[in-house]
């Protein structure tokens, strides 16, 4: 690996491993009066946080690097892992740099976690982000506009100043830059996955949950330049797969590495979907808040927590398989993840209508044993390569 | 136990209201059984945020899949249905109401009266207080491909308040999404006078229901507000809110409880009247349905009476003052949806339970944490701590499931309940 790429990967790896959010603390200490606002998966309008001069910080659980001592006492065994590690992070003062938390409407567990936060940390700002499930601009759009107005006012109060339209327009613009860079990264990986292994792409992506967006965009662009320069990254006879179900509780990095070692090139996924929520750019001219509203209604990612009025679950997945010339789909969902696991039979049905191969397994963010997954993914990859019609 | 009240039918003591409810429910399922031949249209919807008055104003027949699932649980059929759904690829981790419903559908969709439940003409997705509802009806939409879906997104009361734009959002959805689809399916125009008339009937029944639930403030309580309470809420949470039959049922029920109260009688249990009320409890969370009577017996055998419960508020929180208001028909439906128990924030739930412990002079409270329902379960362990701190009353915690018999460990649950009640007894002794 070249020195430049090695340094970049080391930087994003370090950010990934840092459960004390030191980079956020450093950013705050650079200038007095700075604030940071945490957010849970999947989507929050980070542009508003940025426009208030604050740092939006993705809180994605503790992964496999956090020993859960107190968090387990808050959740029954049949509840997924991310809320217990998130509580653990907070109770061990690792989230002290955060001046508030946003909890988007993913599922009942994250929803109730917002109430737990209110009770456990009454001095902190907490807001549940109730994303509209009605996509009519006059109905769901009006509601969402009012919710964003409230969030804008709240953040302005914390910042000690109003958020102006000009500031918000600027934030939309820098997030558009970031979205474009991430789209480019996903396209590049899909075209030549051997140059952009997902275990690396994920770390680059993940840096976007803690760094200022401008800095993250620069890292993504730099990575796009550096990764293709690696001489030893050669095309191999591996299967091209789409990975689905990882939009909330994150897989351990070892799981992504295992899938690649098992012979799977990941050409699309729903990892850190909130960073790539909008299918395109948010318009930069005109009323910026309304632009965010319309972008949400018209450009939102299709995922389990978003209602689809026409009832065609899985169309996006089939489209992704076709667009990325994938040969199969791996359903890889966290244990006890209601949205992902309830969605899965509908996605399976959509794939089976199209004759697309698929396999499935579950994980937890702290899964440590990958032998079975490696065997299953390897068998899946082999079966695609050996017996697919192509 | 004494057998002073009304009549005994087989092993179970029956009151007039019980017979009336059986007749109502039986009649409804008979009507559903005849719906297709009589050309009547059927709407599937959920208990929290149900719009029964509105559906009835279009002469539509409601079907509530949660009720079907719990009845399958009580009839010991849910285990087979869940296995069927899991065989079809549904995860063992997810809501067993959903799997029970899907399994029942796959096995012919036979209702509690033994007759098939008709296919839906509309799926009215009242998305209130439970994120699983959306996936549930998306799954049903796959099964009934041509069936339209009307989505009603009810915002969550995250900060404990009903903001005016929440209400406006719901009303606009009723106007632009729900009512047009009800019109289309029924072939009838929206008749606001008819809706108002139904809402007036709702409020009458709600008054009587609240009186019945609050009768448990008396010592001894004439009712069990959880195990008995789930029967009392049946008609109003099901198909009979806003109907004359519903009003009759609650009037009858109230008169029975008034009589019991005047005679200082305890609640009726499946083994007769409870003679001695030894413990007064508040319970949070749904009951287990697959072993419902066995579960109830664990309490009444020890003289434990549930005087208030959160589960009996999932279909409406009437004891906090809400009544359907015929003068503002769509707005009142919006307020109703917003106020259902599982649409409340966790702090608001703790406030409510704290009030119950105090207002109903409870000796203790228990949480029945069900595996299937994260809307209830996530956060209950913190609620337990907060309630203990605020009330000074000890809490108990048991785990089971709604309709999956694999998750009802009778010996373990009985042991926990007995230990908990012994602890209450010791505390009482120490205080004396």
Notable characteristics:
heterodimer; A: 390 residues; alpha/beta; Rossmann fold; four-stranded parallel beta sheet; 14 helices; globular; B: 432 residues; disordered N terminus
Write up this protein.
The complex is a heterodimer of chains A (390) and B (432). Chain A has 390 residues and is an alpha/beta fold. Chain A has a domain at 31-163: Rossmann fold (3-Layer(aba) Sandwich), CATH 3.40.50.11890. Chain A is 48% helix and 11% strand. Chain A has a four-stranded parallel β-sheet. Chain A has a four-stranded parallel β-sheet with strand order 6-5-7-8. In chain A, α7 (165-191) packs parallel to α9 (213-226) and α10 packs parallel to α14. The two termini of chain A are 34 Å apart. With 432 residues, chain B is of the alpha/beta class. Chain B has helices spanning 16-38, 52-57, 65-74, 78-87, 96-106, 132-143, 164-186, 192-214, 229-232, 234-237, 244-262, 292-300, 329-339, 346-359, 374-377, 380-391, 410-431; strands spanning 7-9, 12-14, 42-44, 61-63, 122-127, 149-153, 268-269, 272-273, 279-284, 304-309, 364-370, 395-400. In chain B, the strands form four sheets. In chain B, strands 4-3-5-6 form a four-stranded parallel β-sheet, sandwiched between helices. In chain B, α12 packs parallel to α17 (410-431) and α14 (346-359) crosses α16 (380-391). The radius of gyration of chain B is 21 Å and the shape is globular. Chain B starts with 6 loop residues before the first strand and ends with a helix. Residues 1-6 of chain B have low confidence and may be disordered.
In short:
The complex is a heterodimer of chains A (390) and B (432). Chain A is α/β, with parallel strands linked by helices and 390 residues long.
């Amino acid at each position: 690996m070249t020195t430049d790429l090695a340094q970049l990967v080391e930087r994003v790896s370090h950010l990934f491993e840092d459960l004390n959010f030191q980079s956020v603390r450093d950013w705050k200490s650079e200038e007095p009066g700075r604030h940071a606002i945490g957010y849970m998966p999947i989507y929050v309008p980070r542009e508003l946080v940025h426009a208030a001069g604050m740092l939006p910080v993705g809180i994605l659980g503790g992964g496999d690097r956090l020993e859960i001592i107190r968090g387990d006492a808050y959740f029954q065994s049949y509840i997924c892992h991310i809320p217990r590690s998130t509580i653990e992070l907070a109770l061990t003062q690792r989230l002290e740099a955060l001046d508030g938390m946003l909890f988007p409407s993913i599922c009942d567990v994250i929803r109730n976690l917002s109430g737990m936060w209110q009770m456990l940390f009454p001095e902190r700002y907490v807001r549940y982000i109730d994303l509209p499930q009605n996509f009519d601009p006059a109905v769901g759009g009006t509601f969402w506009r009012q919710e964003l107005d409230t969030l804008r006012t709240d953040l302005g109060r914390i910042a000690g100043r109003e958020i102006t339209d000009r500031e918000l327009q600027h934030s939309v613009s820098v997030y558009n830059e970031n979205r474009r860079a991430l789209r480019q990264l996903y396209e590049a990986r899909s075209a030549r996955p051997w140059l952009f292994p997902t275990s690396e792409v994920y770390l680059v992506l993940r840096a976007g949950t803690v760094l200022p967006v401008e800095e993250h965009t620069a890292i993504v662009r730099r990575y796009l330049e550096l990764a293709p320069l690696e001489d030893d990254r050669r095309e191999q006879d591996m299967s091209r797969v789409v990975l689905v179900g990882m939009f909330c509780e994150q897989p351990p990095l070892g799981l992504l590495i295992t899938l690649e070692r098992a012979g799977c090139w990941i050409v699309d996924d729903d990892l850190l979907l909130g960073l790539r929520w909008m299918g395109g750019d948010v318009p930069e001219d005109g009323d910026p808040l309304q632009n965010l509203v319309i972008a949400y209604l018209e450009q939102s990612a299709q995922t389990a927590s978003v209602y689809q009025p026409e009832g065609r679950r899985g169309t996006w997945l089939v489209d992704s398989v076709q667009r990325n010339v994938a040969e199969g789909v791996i359903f890889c969902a966290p244990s006890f993840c209601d949205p992902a696991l309830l969605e899965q039979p509908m996605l399976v049905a959509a794939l089976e209508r199209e004759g697309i191969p698929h396999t499935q397994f579950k994980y937890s963010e702290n899964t440590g044993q990958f032998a079975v997954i490696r065997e299953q993914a390897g068998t899946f990859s082999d079966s695609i390569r050996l017996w697919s019609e192509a | 136990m004494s057998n002073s009240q009304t009549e005994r039918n087989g092993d179970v003591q029956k009151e007039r209201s019980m017979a009336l409810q059986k007749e109502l429910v039986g009649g409804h399922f008979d009507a559903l059984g005849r719906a297709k031949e009589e050309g009547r249209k059927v709407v599937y919807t959920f208990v929290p945020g149900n719009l029964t008055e509105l559906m009835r104003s279009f002469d539509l027949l409601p079907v509530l899949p949660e009720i079907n699932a719990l009845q399958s649980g009580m009839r010991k059929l849910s285990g087979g249905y869940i296995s069927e759904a899991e065989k079809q690829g549904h995860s063992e981790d997810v809501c067993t109401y959903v799997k029970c419903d899907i399994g029942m559908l796959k096995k012919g969709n036979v209702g509690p009266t033994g007759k098939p439940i008709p296919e839906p003409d509309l799926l009215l997705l009242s998305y209130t207080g439970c994120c699983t509802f959306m996936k549930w009806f998306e799954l049903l939409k796959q099964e009934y491909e041509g069936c339209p879906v009307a989505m009603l997104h009810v915002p969550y009361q995250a900060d404990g308040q009903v903001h005016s734009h929440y209400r406006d959002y719901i009303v606009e959805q009723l106007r632009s999404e729900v009512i047009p689809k009800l019109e289309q399916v029924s072939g009838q125009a929206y008749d606001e006078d008819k809706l108002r008339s139904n809402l007036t009937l709702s409020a009458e029944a709600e008054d009587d229901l609240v009186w019945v639930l609050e009768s448990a403030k008396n010592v001894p309580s004439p009712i069990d507000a959880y195990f008995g309470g789930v029967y009392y809420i049946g008609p109003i949470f099901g198909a009979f809110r806003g109907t004359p039959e519903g009003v009759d049922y609650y009037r009858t029920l109230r008169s029975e409880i008034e009589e019991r109260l005047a005679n200082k009688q305890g609640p009726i249990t499946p083994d007769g009247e409870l003679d001695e009320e030894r413990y007064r409890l508040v319970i949070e969370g749904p009951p287990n349905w697959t072993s419902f009577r066995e579960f109830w017996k664990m309490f009444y055998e020890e003289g434990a009476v549930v005087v208030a419960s959160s589960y009996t508020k999932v279909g409406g929180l009437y004891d906090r003052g809400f009544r359907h208001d015929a003068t503002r028909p769509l707005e009142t439906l919006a307020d109703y949806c917003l106020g259902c128990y599982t649409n409340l924030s966790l702090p608001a739930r703790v406030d409510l339970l704290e009030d119950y412990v105090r207002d109903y002079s409870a000796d203790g409270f228990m949480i029945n944490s069900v595996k299937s329902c994260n809307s209830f379960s996530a956060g209950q362990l913190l609620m337990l701590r907060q309630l203990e701190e605020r009330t000074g009353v000890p809490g108990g915690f048991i785990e089971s499931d709604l309709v999956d018999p694999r998750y009802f460990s009778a010996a373990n649950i009985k042991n926990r309940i007995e230990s908990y009640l012994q602890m209450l007894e010791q505390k009482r002794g120490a205080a004396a």
